[in-house]
Amino acid sequence: MSTPIVVLPNGLGSLRGVQHATCQSFLGIPYAAPPVGPRRFQPPQQPEAWDAVREATAYGPWAPQTADVPGSPLPRDVVAGDDFLTLNVWTPDTQGRAPVMVFIHGGSFTTGSGAVPAYDGTAFARDGVVLVTINYRLGVEGFLWTGEGTPNLGLLDQVAALRWVQDNICAFGGDPSNVTVFGESAGAMSVVTLMTMPMAKGLFQRAIAESGAGENVHDNDTARMVSQRLAEHLGVAPTLAGIGAVPQAELLAGLAAIEASVATSTLGDSWGDVARTLLPFCPVIDGNIVPAMPRDLMHSGAAHNVDLMLGTNAEEARLFFVPDGSIGRMDPRMPTVLAHRYGAQADDVQQAYHRHGIHDHGDVAAAVLTDGFYRVPALRIASHQPNAYLYQFTWKSPAYDGKLGSCHALELPFVFDNLDSPDVQLLLGGQRPQHIADRMHAAWIAFARTGNPGWQPFREGRASMEFGDDSGLQAPDRTVDPEYWPTIEE
Q1: What is the pLDDT along the chain (490 residues), one digit of tens a residue?
Q2: What is the DSSP string of 289-304?
Q3: pTM
Q4: HEC per residue, 325-393
């Protein structure tokens, strides 16, 4: 097989990729200059051009982040390096004009990479889609806000990557007029935010949000409070210069300490709005890049011209409570605290969920967090977006003696049709239900091609597609109790 070479139309240079049996791949392509030195804490800038053909045969470095936790059901093989604002492309044919899908990874805005093996785009390219995965600045580098400089640098990186796609994807056989941006968790929150950002307008026509909606942003005061507490922990001034002078290893350790403080103070209000988002670092409403709460902007029609598919997993929060055993040590007050935090209404939280067969404190807390943090926000957006398609993923992993259930991130290997990927085997618990992957992967491709995944929009009978052992359309959706969650608009 011949080695594929593409010439980028923006004049940066040429790339040599890899020819596979069913597609071609081009990895580690810089879409922006390394954000270090004088470019640190600055908006993304154009990468330098190169003369010789550049090898695009291996992934680039990851954005700075903490090391992987041994035994995690979502392992990360972090690769360090400065030139991490890169993207990866899989294409069926560089001479074609195929639909394009751009994936934004999750990881609480502090971890992750487009180079995770489970995000390999071979199956998408095999089925006629150009698949792009991206890196973007995380944590302090991407979402610190002290009141100085430019906020939301991680979002600006995502916009820069989408602009790169508009300018260059035709060289890879992609159609820049048919782009779907999709993401999971923090990536899904990014997707919904991008839908309402003025500078992202016109960069994509369709969007898919997996387990993340439009409510996970901070106001200015909250963002500055986080930077203040990080600075206090590091013993420096709460400024870009003060925090930026801290060595990267100490900075990442400080970030981990802040995350741990948030996680252990869930019963209190010491973190303000972070107690609701559970994210110390995330997009901030600055009035310009992020004009307002994305949910509110969508409700006012800011993204009505964008086709949207969104959904959640049936037991999202079990990923956070089962692997570390905390589900069995849950404070009995936690279900009530979470219910109040996310706007549920019931005199007895435990009793409300007992009616649905959920009894233990830990199980109830996980169910309340799943509904309040994930499902209800998705329903709120679907209720207002005229062309929104809703789904729920319900297949239960047998991992951790069957306790992991239909947890957060479990749908990803099904969407990417990568059930054999080594990094998802612990998550899958030894099972590989290919028939579910076939249905989900096909629905994502159908949506990217046509804007319709194969079922009716949510506002036509409040319809929701279930992907699991008992797949099928629910109309109306019955995934949450409308009496307990009255904020869902009919």
Answers
A1: 678 999 999 889 999 999 999 999 999 999 999 999 999 999 999 999 999 999 999 999 999 999 888 778 888 889 999 999 999 999 999 999 999 999 999 999 999 999 999 999 999 999 999 999 999 999 999 999 999 999 999 999 999 999 999 999 999 999 999 999 999 999 999 999 999 999 999 999 999 999 999 899 999 999 999 999 999 999 999 999 999 999 999 999 999 999 988 887 765 567 878 988 999 999 999 999 999 999 999 999 999 999 999 999 999 999 999 999 999 999 999 999 899 889 888 778 888 898 888 989 999 999 999 999 999 999 999 999 999 999 999 999 999 999 999 999 999 999 999 999 999 999 999 999 999 999 999 999 999 999 999 999 999 999 999 999 988 999 999 999 888 887 665 4
A2: SS-S-HHHHHHTTTTT
A3: 0.97
A4: CHHHCCCCCHHHHHHHHCCCCCCCHHHHHHCCCCCCHHHHHHHHHHHHHHHHHHHHHHHHCCCEEEEEE
Enclosing H/E stretch for 443: helix 434-450
Q: How many CA atoms lie within 13 A of 450 on its CB side?
A: 8
Structure tokens at 433: 């239900």
The residues carrying an active-site annotation are 185, 316, 408
Task: Pull the structure tokens for residue 248.
Answer: 């990267």
Residue with tokens 């800038």: 45
Give the whole-angstrom CA distance, residue 283 versus residue 187: 12
Name residues whose C-beta falls within 8 Å of residue 368's C-beta, 6 or more positions apart in sequence: 335, 338, 339, 342, 344, 349, 353
DSSP state, residue 169: G
Q: How many residues does the chain have?
A: 490
For 139-267, strand residue ranges (E) read 174-184, 206-210
Say which residues have a Cβ less than 8 Å from residue 361's Cβ, sequence separation at least 6.
330, 331, 332, 334, 335, 350
Residue 480 has φ and ψ, to the nearest 5°, of: -130, 160
